[in-house]
């Protein structure tokens, strides 16, 4: 027992006094008294090292130790490695200019070294520098580095661009050179003419002050998507050669209260530093929506942001030289205070392009895309009636990609038709699986629409019939030209009603009672059209039905049924007198999958010329 106690006592004393002598140190001590004195004692190591050390010293990132501190006994590890490191650094700095330090400066420097932890520090022979393992040297470029010189992070604040100090804020940036001008925008000549004065306002906005006119402060581009609202704004900035700031309405929405109004102020302050300047707010309805009165927090914050925008547009501050352009698909959602003159002075509706604009857009986007003689731009202009500018660009782009996918260097009208079909009805990788009998019914059904549409005088022109088994919904369809007019006559609506019913009529004439369910969508649309004609368009026996009483409901139902029955009778008359044409045309359609109006007319001229004389 006594022997065990002596062993434990010996191990305890050894652990307290002997083992610490052999523990590897965690710090590096560089005692300069052990090394030969340099020729110049002002900088014991070098001027560069002295500057680096002073920066570390003032940052508080150092530690001094006492000889009698037991931690001193633990700092022997890696001494040789780090001593060699500082000796190499000292050798690299031998070419630094040095000067003599007097006794007063030397004493001051020694006090600075010992000021950390005065209770644990005592004077030593010479002076020493103690570096903690986590302490990184700081180079002259303000970059923290490890002991091997690898950069860790910069200690300097972010540097702004001194040449353009006012071109960028925290959330917005001024574009000084717009790559677009009006020549990059195809068509829309009337809109460009309207914007020419806006260009003059931005370029010579001081000229108008002599004429006692109020300079417009903004405009709204409204209309369906894909028609160049953003491109026209960029072209306006490029034409006027002024700064351009583009933002989205959603950038002003944030979960924190007050952020939206702060960003509005930031936006206009940046624009004020760069006048003349254009601010383009895309999807302005996100910020300019009509103010709510329900008191909700989100609505209140949006209202505050809108109020800040209203003040920025027409407040006490002078905003001359700043022109605001907003773009939206839903102008009906905008607040009336935003649209009033003095804030937004112009509203320009940009609809789907007309024939002239479509031709210009197709010419621009067909540049660099080779196509063969089967593609005729003038015919393509007619075929693409109703498409937006973005859809026209996508049409040519996808046609070229489809040709390249098949290792062809030119796209053809087949590529155009394929892409058009995908754009109108969609595409699925797996085709519908139908029996030959169902395919026959489908062909007869579509030829019924096509023949009656071709014989209609007031309806838009029939273009082609397509059997497309890759379409997700309808395996076949008949394409008509889009009407440029939004006002339709009674005759045009009646013929459209007849065309909708003629598909089922053709099936009944050819197959009797063996009809399909393919007319379901036609019937739904025909019923809605007949109800609109009676209830909304005033094309019944009475122009207006004052109430929805049971009496008037019965009268409305009776007139709707009369319209549908009359259209069905006229369509049946045309189909029965064209039965042979339907059967022959259906065979061609099943074989080619596509039949254009010109092919159907050619068959009629050769064999069934009498059909053109049918009158309804």
TrEMBL record:
In the C-terminal section; belongs to the peptidase M41 family. Residues 150-170 are annotated as: Disordered. One of its GO terms (cellular component) is chloroplast. Pfam families: AAA (PF00004), AAA_lid_3 (PF17862), Peptidase_M41 (PF01434). Residues 215-354 form the AAA+ ATPase domain. Keywords: Hydrolase, Protease. One of its GO terms (molecular function) is ATP hydrolysis activity. PROSITE patterns: AAA. The keyword Hydrolase applies. Signal peptide: none annotated. This is AAA+ ATPase domain-containing protein. GO terms for biological process: protein import into chloroplast stroma; proteolysis.
């Amino acid at each position: 027992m006594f022997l065990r106690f002596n062993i434990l006592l010996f191990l305890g004393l050894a652990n307290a006094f002997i083992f610490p002598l052999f523990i590897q140190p965690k710090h590096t001590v560089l005692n300069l008294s052990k090394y030969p004195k340099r020729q110049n004692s002002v900088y014991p190591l070098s001027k560069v090292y002295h500057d680096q050390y002073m920066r570390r010293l003032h940052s508080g990132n150092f530690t001094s130790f006492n000889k009698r501190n037991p931690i001193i006994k633990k700092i022997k590890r890696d001494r040789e490695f780090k001593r060699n490191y500082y000796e190499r650094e000292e050798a690299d700095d031998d070419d630094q200019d040095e000067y003599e330090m007097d006794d007063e400066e030397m004493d001051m420097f020694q006090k600075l070294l010992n000021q950390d932890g005065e209770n644990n520090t005592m004077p030593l022979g010479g002076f020493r520098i103690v570096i903690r393992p986590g302490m990184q040297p700081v180079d002259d470029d303000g970059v923290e580095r490890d002991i091997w010189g690898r950069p860790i992070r910069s200690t300097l604040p972010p540097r702004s661009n001194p040449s353009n100090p006012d071109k960028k804020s925290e959330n917005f940036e001024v574009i000084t050179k717009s790559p677009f001008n009006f020549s990059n925008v195809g068509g829309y000549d009337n809109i460009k003419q309207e914007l020419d004065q806006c260009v003059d306002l931005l370029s010579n906005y001081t000229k108008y002050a002599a004429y006692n006119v109020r300079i417009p402060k903004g405009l709204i581009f409204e209309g369906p998507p894909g028609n160049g609202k953003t491109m026209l704004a960029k072209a306006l900035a490029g034409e006027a050669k002024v700064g351009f700031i583009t933002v989205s309405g959603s950038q002003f929405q944030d979960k924190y209260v007050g952020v939206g109004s702060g960003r509005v102020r930031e936006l206009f302050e940046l624009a004020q530093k760069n006048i003349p300047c254009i601010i383009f707010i895309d999807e302005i309805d996100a910020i300019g929506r009509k103010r709510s009165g329900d008191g909700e927090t989100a609505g209140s914050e949006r209202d505050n942001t809108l109020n800040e925008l209203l003040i920025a547009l027409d407040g006490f501050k002078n905003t001359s030289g700043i022109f605001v352009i907003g773009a939206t698909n839903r102008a009906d959602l905008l607040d009336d205070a935003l649209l009033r003159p003095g804030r937004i002075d112009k509203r320009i509706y940009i609809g789907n392009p007309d024939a002239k604009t479509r031709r210009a857009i197709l010419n621009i986007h067909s540049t660099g895309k080779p196509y063969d003689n089967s593609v005729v731009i003038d015919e393509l202009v007619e075929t693409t009636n109703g498409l937006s500018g973005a859809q026209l660009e996508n049409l040519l782009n996808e046609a070229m990609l489809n040709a390249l996918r098949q290792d062809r260097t030119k796209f053809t009208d087949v590529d155009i038709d394929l892409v058009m079909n995908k754009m109108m009805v969609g595409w699925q990788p797996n085709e519908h699986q139908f029996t030959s009998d169902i395919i026959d019914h489908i062909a007869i059904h579509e030829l019924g629409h096509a023949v009656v549409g071709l014989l209609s005088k007031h309806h838009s022109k029939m273009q082609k019939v397509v059997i497309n088994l890759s379409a997700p919904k309808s395996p076949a369809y008949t394409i008509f030209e889009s009407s440029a007019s939004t006002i339709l006559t009674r005759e045009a609506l009646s013929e459209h009603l007849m065309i909708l019913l003629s598909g089922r009529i053709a099936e009944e004439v050819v197959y009797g009672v063996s009809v399909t369910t393919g007319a379901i969508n036609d019937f739904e649309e025909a019923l809605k059209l007949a109800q609109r004609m009676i209830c909304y368009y005033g094309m019944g026996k009475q122009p207006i039905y004052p109430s929805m009483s049971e009496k008037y409901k019965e009268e409305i139902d009776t007139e709707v049924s009369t319209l549908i029955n009359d259209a069905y009778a006229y369509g049946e008359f045309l189909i029965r007198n064209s039965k042979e044409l339907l059967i022959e045309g259906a065979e061609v359609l099943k074989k080619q999958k596509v039949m254009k109006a010109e092919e159907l007319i050619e068959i009629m001229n050769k064999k069934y010329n009498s059909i053109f004389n049918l009158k309804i």
